[in-house]
Amino acid sequence: MTDSAAIPAPSALPEEEVRRLLAFDRAHVWHPYSSALRPSVMQFAESASGVRIRLRPADDPGRTVEAIDAMASWWCAIHGYGVPELDAAARQQLDAMGHVMFGGLTHAPAISLAEKLIALAPGANGTIGGTGAAGDPGAHDVGDDETLQHVFLADSGSVSVEVALKAAWQYHALTGRPRRRMFTIRGGYHGDTFGAMSVCDPVGGMHSLFTGVLPEQLFAPRPPAGVDRAPDDPEIVAWETETRALFAAHADDIAGVICEPVLQGAGGMHAYSPHCVRVLAELARANDSVLIFDEIATGFGRTGTFWAADRVGVVPDILCVGKALTGGYATMAAMLCAPRIARGVSAEPAGALMHGPTFMGNPLVAAIAGASLDLLRRDDPLPRVARVEGGLRESLAPAAGFASVADVRTLGAVGVIQLREPVRAAEVAALALDHGVWVRPFRDCVYTMPPFVAEPDDVAAIGAALVTAVGEVHGR
């Protein structure tokens, strides 16, 4: 970790004040996935710029240091920090209004954002290309009724999944064919709200404590690892056989099929074949079950195609997006759906989708999100993602020879060192920070999802820090 004057600090706090704030935080502030009584050590973030965060170390808050953010603030700050275009959008919108209710009112930022999302959505140009394993189908025509034409703005990724699940249940309830259950694959993660928890992995996920309270869904086996696996791979064939049999046994009660296409994020950074996603899509379509793609983590270029759906060659009935939607500036997500789903959900007697967050369509955040999408349209992110992928593949490769490491893999701007044991997260994070990189390992994974704007030297530094930390903590 290096001392820094590169990141401007609007107002440097005195050491005594930082110590007071850290003490109050430790006593009273509840952080994600943490104990209120045994809190983890928190570094004090002072400012951020580019791909770096300016920190005051918890053990020495009189010192100012900087670290490359290898996490892109939980995968959302794809443009980095202090982005002039996003800053300008926020300031301009504040001159008009920060917020008005979306019930009975509408406004330009939300309308413009919806317009841009529809234009960028999978299948928006009438075709969608598949780039999966040999023998998989390629691009195919997408009819108007299959395109994603309706946008519901939500507060967070978890809420967008809630809305998607409610829409699927309501679609069947109002078309006279009520169904109770969702079908998904093991290993998934879709959020922390109640409905979203029910389609997360029921055993290895974070929500097993709620077993018996959550709705009971149907879980097919986790697909075998490997994006390039062919459909006739014996393990893929076995997975498909078991999955089809489970679906057939419960088909009459399956309202929807939900998955994170190609890459399961918080479930362990598990990458799998697009063919398996196509199998799930085929089962859903043949059964009139609503097909939901959760692209909250995978969307906007993260896995090497603009949507993971592009690699699969399928347009879902419902698409959930979030995280990178606002470039990491504020919380907002969206559910996009096809016209036939909108018609079914809007049928009488309900006549409306029964959901309406207070801050739905917040003008300030919608303006920032619109500016973020403008950046993605102006500067194609995929060449940058490919550059990051190449850098991660090279810099993480040395870890593959460690006895402590089970696998090293990359997919787009995602790099993973998977261990043979649970990661000693605090130790790995501390050592990485000593080498100038902020990382937050979990489960058995030491991983990075850096901002797309990370330069080759930044990516190399991330890889070197992760490899060194894993080697020193878990052994070579």
Automatic annotation (TrEMBL):
The lineage of its organism: Bacteria, Bacillati, Actinomycetota, Actinomycetes, Micrococcales. One of its GO terms (cellular component) is cytoplasm. Pfam families: Aminotran_3. It catalyses: (8S)-8-amino-7-oxononanoate + S-adenosyl-L-methionine = S-adenosyl-4-methylsulfanyl-2-oxobutanoate + (7R,8S)-7,8-diammoniononanoate. Pyridoxal 5'-phosphate binds at residues 157-158, 294, 357-358. Pathway: Cofactor biosynthesis; biotin biosynthesis; 7,8-diaminononanoate from 8-amino-7-oxononanoate (SAM route): step 1/1. Keywords: Aminotransferase, Biotin biosynthesis, Cytoplasm, Pyridoxal phosphate, S-adenosyl-L-methionine, Transferase. Catalyzes the transfer of the alpha-amino group from S-adenosyl-L-methionine (SAM) to 7-keto-8-aminopelargonic acid (KAPA) to form 7,8-diaminopelargonic acid (DAPA). It is the only aminotransferase known to utilize SAM as an amino donor. It is found in: Cytoplasm. Homodimer. The modification N6-(pyridoxal phosphate)lysine is found at residue 323. The record marks 33 as: Participates in the substrate recognition with KAPA and in a stacking interaction with the adenine ring of SAM. Its EC number is 2.6.1.62. Its cofactor is pyridoxal 5'-phosphate. One of its GO terms (biological process) is biotin biosynthetic process. This is Adenosylmethionine-8-amino-7-oxononanoate aminotransferase. Substrate binds at residues 74, 189, 323, 356, 440. One of its GO terms (molecular function) is pyridoxal phosphate binding. Belongs to the class-III pyridoxal-phosphate-dependent aminotransferase family. BioA subfamily.
